[in-house]
Amino acid sequence: MKTLPLRLVPGADLRRELEAALAAHGVEAGFVLQGIGSLQPAVLRLAGAEATVSPAGSVELLTLAGSVGPGGSHLHASVSDAAGRVLGGHLGYGSVVHTTAEVLLALLPDWAFSREPDATTGYAELVVRQR
């Protein structure tokens, strides 16, 4: 495992930048160990929901964790608004860095992640293969 600390700048799509960082290092498997910062907008899909929600205004990114791979990522985030209300869910594309995002990405060069249909869950789920 190799760690890659990242600081993402305002205007960056958080999810796309993490996937791009993985690809730039020629790696097919990674995990976000932690992430903090601010987003505007934040795009989250809540548990059991099909549609996404976007809290109004700028939000603090309290936590970010999950898997990153070339076939898709599975990232969970918790954010808080100006009143301190916390909301969490799956991080979607279009979650844009407001002031900064500081993320620690673990690169796993000996492994490859893909997403394949799982008959049990009905979703494309993580498949882990050794390279």
From TrEMBL:
The keyword DNA-binding applies. Coiled coil: none annotated. The keyword Transferase does not apply. Pfam families: PCC. GO terms for molecular function: DNA binding. Residues 1-129 form the PPC domain. This is DNA-binding protein.
